[in-house]
């Protein structure tokens, strides 16, 4: 079933590319959106802005987001989009990949966390509602994954001594469904 | 038409809200397990003889005696260092003592703990330092091999080392999920230490983090809850005279000054009178917020540092100066904000404070209510110091430093023994 869905989407991309008609040069486009990160833990709102160039059915940009899901991070990433399907049904595929800065605190219960933002990934399908001029509303659904590591240092309680700290490493992988709405111009 | 399509699209999205339960977060925790290496108590005791000098890796407390330094390697033993030339200290030997964190010296005898036992070493021949007496199970708060009625040292197993092994476990199955998404937390505090000049008579000089103190013919030791008195009138044959319960104060340090003991705890400072050395008697106490608190004193004042970020769960970084001219009623003089103060030492009017990552601070303390900053050495993470009439020893994260100083508090670095990892 998954394979069939993928083939369908890829076929749509090919058809969509062929249906673009007249070609034009690259132009700047900014996409600013808010979305729900639906995970097993909670459903906070993520904000992101992506700015880049639109060229025919392709779009490439760089983005930055505020992602509070479980461990607050600021992902920064490359964004690639491809319009698919016929002009009357302006769907698009998108993929984001990059890394992230961690905003979470460094102390909890006396343990010091040295954070390490790892891979941020988000990919899915969207739908464009054209408005006046170059304005549009973009709705998207995707799967997002962010990986965050931490080296945790906990002091060892030994009165009067000089005990070495207890050190361990945590590797979090957080998986979410993204439901996003935004405005592009 | 557009709106109809959009509404349809949104309608299709609604069930996706339930997809959150289909995706799972994972957390892996990589722990370095310390697997204990055991030896019988007999083997351990037979091995407590000085050998070749070893690298300094985890320095603990220091004790000085004459031209020698005795530097604790936490839970491993004691480095013997010839410090007759502070500009060029020479490591002479290492005495392996599993479970050692405290030490004191009187005459030619070194007193050291080894987990629950007190061990006496003869320093008569520094090339061949040997134990001459073991006093069993006098520090029961660190007992880990005295179980039941076992007394045969061949069957009592002692942890002498650890081997490290990385193990990956699921966070949820080991210590909770480990997630959080906001800063701010309960700071804890770690160990620290200081040495001071006003150490009691009869031997060398210990630090403000010491848990052993020698005055005259008596050795005093503190556990987390008690004060023990040993007679060392025969230095090679210490006799335990008694133990006094100190209540739930979480005792950390002991500092002797004249015929008084100043005991630092996580909750405050206590003063004991030892004019009758065999029977320490309580004089007074001064309570403060929960924190690690090395304490030193002179005739007029006690100086107490409180710090955050360590195992003592402190919430303040400060120096408290107390007036102790009336020992039965210590009164606060002034509090000074610091960065992360650990140990401290005093020589005359000079006050030296190890301020953790903020280096070493030197004050003129002639007026305790108005300390005058004289020098601030940064770039070292300090936690232990001892002032020896012109030479200052400082234990820092990256080594053991020595400075010369004059009455004006001007410090000049003499040497450094680097810590090797």
TrEMBL record, chain A:
Residues 1-19 form the signal peptide. It comes from the Bacteria. It comes from Flaviaesturariibacter amylovorans. Keywords: Signal. This is Outer membrane protein beta-barrel domain-containing protein.
TrEMBL record, chain B:
It comes from the Bacteria. Pfam families: LVIVD. Keywords: Signal. InterPro entries: LVIVD. The keyword Disulfide bond does not apply. The keyword Signal applies. Residues 1-20 form the signal peptide. This is LVIVD repeat-containing protein. It comes from Flaviaesturariibacter amylovorans.
């Amino acid at each position: 079933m998954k394979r069939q869905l993928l083939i369908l989407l890829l076929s749509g991309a090919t058809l969509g590319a062929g249906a673009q008609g007249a070609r034009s040069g690259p132009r700047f486009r900014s996409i600013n959106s808010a979305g729900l990160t639906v995970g097993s833990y909670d459903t906070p709102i993520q904000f992101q802005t992506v700015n880049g160039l639109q060229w025919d059915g392709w779009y490439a940009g760089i983005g930055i987001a505020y992602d509070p899901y479980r461990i607050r991070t600021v992902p920064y990433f490359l964004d690639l989009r491809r319009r698919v399907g016929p002009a009357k049904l302006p769907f698009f595929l998108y993929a984001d990949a990059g890394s992230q800065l961690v905003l979470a605190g460094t102390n909890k219960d006396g343990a010091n966390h040295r954070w390490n933002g790892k891979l941020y990934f988000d990919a899915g399908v969207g739908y464009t509602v054209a408005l006046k001029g170059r304005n549009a509303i973009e709705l998207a659904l995707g799967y997002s994954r962010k990986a965050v590591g931490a080296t945790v240092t906990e002091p060892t309680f030994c009165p009067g001594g000089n005990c070495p700290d207890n050190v361990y490493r945590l590797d979090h992988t957080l998986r979410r469904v993204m439901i996003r709405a935004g405005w592009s111009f | 038409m557009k709106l109809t399509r959009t509404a349809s699209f949104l309608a299709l999205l609604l069930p996706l809200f339930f997809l959150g339960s289909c995706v799972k977060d994972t957390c892996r925790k990589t722990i370095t397990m310390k697997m204990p290496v055991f030896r019988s108590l007999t083997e351990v005791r037979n091995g407590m003889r000085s050998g070749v000098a070893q690298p300094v890796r985890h320095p603990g407390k220091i004790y000085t005696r004459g031209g020698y330094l005795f530097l604790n390697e936490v839970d491993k033993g004691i480095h013997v260092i010839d410090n007759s030339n502070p500009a060029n200290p020479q490591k002479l030997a290492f005495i392996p003592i599993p479970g050692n964190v405290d030490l004191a010296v009187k005459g030619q005898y070194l007193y050291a703990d080894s987990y629950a036992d007190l061990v006496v070493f003869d320093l008569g021949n520094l090339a061949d330092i040997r134990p001459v007496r073991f006093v069993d199970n006098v520090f029961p708060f660190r007992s880990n091999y005295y179980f039941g009625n076992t007394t045969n040292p061949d069957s009592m197993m002692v942890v002498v080392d650890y081997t490290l092994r990385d193990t990956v476990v699921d966070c949820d199955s080991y210590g909770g999920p480990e997630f959080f998404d906001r800063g701010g937390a309960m700071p804890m505090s770690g160990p620290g230490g200081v040495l001071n000049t006003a150490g009691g008579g009869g031997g060398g000089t210990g630090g403000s983090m010491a848990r052993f103190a020698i005055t005259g013919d008596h050795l005093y030791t503190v556990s987390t809850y008690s004060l023990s008195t040993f007679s060392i009138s025969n230095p090679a044959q210490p006799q335990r005279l008694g133990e006094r319960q100190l209540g739930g104060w979480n005792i950390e340090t002991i500092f002797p000054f004249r015929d008084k003991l100043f005991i630092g705890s996580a909750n405050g400072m206590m003063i004991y009178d030892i004019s009758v050395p065999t029977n320490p008697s309580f004089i007074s106490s001064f309570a403060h917020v929960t924190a690690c608190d090395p304490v030193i004193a002179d005739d007029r004042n006690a100086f107490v540092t409180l710090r955050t970020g360590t195992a003592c769960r402190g919430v303040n970084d400060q120096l408290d100066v107390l007036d102790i001219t009336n020992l039965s009623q210590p009164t606060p003089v002034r509090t000074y904000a610091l960065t992360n103060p650990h140990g401290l030492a005093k020589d005359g009017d000079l006050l030296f404070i190890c301020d953790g990552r903020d280096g070493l601070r030197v004050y003129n303390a002639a007026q305790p209510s108005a300390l005058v900053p004289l020098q601030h050495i940064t770039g070292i993470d300090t936690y232990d110091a001892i002032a020896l009439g012109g030479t200052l020893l400082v234990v820092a994260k990256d080594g053991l430093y020595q400075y010369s100083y004059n009455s004006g508090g001007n410090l000049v670095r003499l040497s450094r023994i680097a810590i090797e990892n």
